[in-house]
Each structure stands twice: as C-alpha cells, then as structure tokens.
Design goal:
Strand content: 35-45%
Largest sheet: 8 strands, mixed
Cofactor: Mn(2+); Mg(2+)
Number of strands: 11
Number of domains: 1
CATH superfamily: Nucleoside Triphosphate Pyrophosphohydrolase
Keywords: Hydrolase, Magnesium, Manganese, Metal-binding
Number of helices: 4
Helix content: 10-25%
Shape: globular
Structural class: alpha+beta
Pfam families: NUDIX
CATH class: Alpha Beta
Protein name: Coenzyme A pyrophosphatase
Organism: Shewanella glacialipiscicola
CATH topology: Nucleoside Triphosphate Pyrophosphohydrolase
CATH architecture: Alpha-Beta Complex
C-alpha cells in the first residue's frame, strides 16, 4: 500500500464500531504509542521495536515506540512523538501525524492511545538500550492479509481474555500491539471499488 492510498483509507473509514477494550475505564495508567509508517521501496512498513529482556514490564515483547504520558506532555500525540524520539531517534519533526485511534485498554492496567503518523524522510536509528533491544519494520501488506492475524482466548484470574497474535518471521507479535495492528487493518479494509 502506498502513502496516498493509506491516507485515503485512513480518513474514509468510520470508527463508530469500537472494540470493547476501547471503552473508557477509570483508574488506568495513560500511555501513548506511535504507529509510525515508513515508505520503503514504494511500500508502507510499520516500525516496531522489541523490548529488552531486563525490563520488569513486558520483557522481550514486540511493541510500538511509546510509553507513559508524562505531566509535561500536552496530549497523547506529544507523548508518542517524544517517546519515539527518545527510544529510536525518530525526530518528532519528521512525522506527519494523521490522527489517533480511540484508546485501547489492557487488562494489565493501561489505557493506550495509538497515534498514527507517516515518517517524512529516512532517518538513522538511535536506539535507547534501556528501552529498546531492537527495531525493525514489517510491510503493512503482511498484516492487512487476514490470514496473518489470529485471535486466541486465554484464562487469567478466572476470566477469559481475547488475545491477538501475529507471528512474523522469527518474531511473535501479540497482546496490545497485535490488537492495535488488527484495529488499523480493519480501519483500512474499505473495498477498493469504494475508493
């Protein structure tokens, strides 16, 4: 998918039907992530990171650049851009922000606001080793194919939870990151003859 088609599909599709996980809850810690899309050879790729194994929370998991919304952040967009700059060296001035998705609530106590943006120019990765073990890209077309997006149910503390999973090469993308990717792909699923 090219940038022009992505912009059109992103802007046309209604967000009226929300996932139950997006409904507001009280007492959740607020966070923001950047769904950064980069044009590589005429095809959009998602930028993803892998968390280091030494972290207490979610060690080794694949995630988007992002983190907790700090008091100095004016909003979720500012937080996502700040975190991406700190974690992978993606300057906030190098991102064309298209908008946000409604917050995604996790059963681990976070309300995550996904911020969608296009990387304007190629940039040199500068990883913060305290936050990021690796950074890589995945073609958006891989995720748009529904056969690559799966949903499993797990029992935790007496409740069943739906968990999205998306294996990609040697990576295993799951949880909130996979759920947000699934939401993005459903957002883009306007039939081609409608555009």
């Amino acid at each position: 998918m090219e940038i022009a088609e992505f912009r059109l599909r992103f802007n046309l599709h209604s967000l009226a039907l929300q996932d139950p996980a997006a409904f507001p809850h009280i007492g959740l810690r607020k966070a923001a992530v950047l769904i950064a899309l980069q044009d590589i050879g005429g095809e959009l790729h998602l930028i993803l990171t892998q968390r280091p194994m030494h972290l207490r929370a979610h060690p080794g998991q694949v995630s988007f650049p992002g983190g907790k919304i700090e008091p100095e952040d004016v909003n979720a967009i500012a937080a996502a851009l700040r975190e991406a700059e700190e974690e992978i060296g993606l300057s906030r001035n190098n991102v064309d922000v298209l908008g946000t998705f409604p917050p995604y609530n996790t059963f681990t106590g976070f309300e995550i606001t996904p911020v969608v943006g296009i990387v304007k120019q190629t940039f040199v990765l500068k990883l913060d080793p305290g936050e990021v073990a690796d950074c890589f890209t995945v073609p958006l077309s891989f995720f748009i194919d529904p056969s690559h997006r799966h949903q499993k149910f797990f029992l935790r503390q007496g409740h069943y939870y739906s968990v999205h999973v998306m294996p990609y090469q040697q990576r295993f993308i799951w949880g909130a990151t996979a759920a947000i990717i699934d939401h993005l792909c459903r957002q883009l699923s306007i039939p081609a003859d409608f555009i």
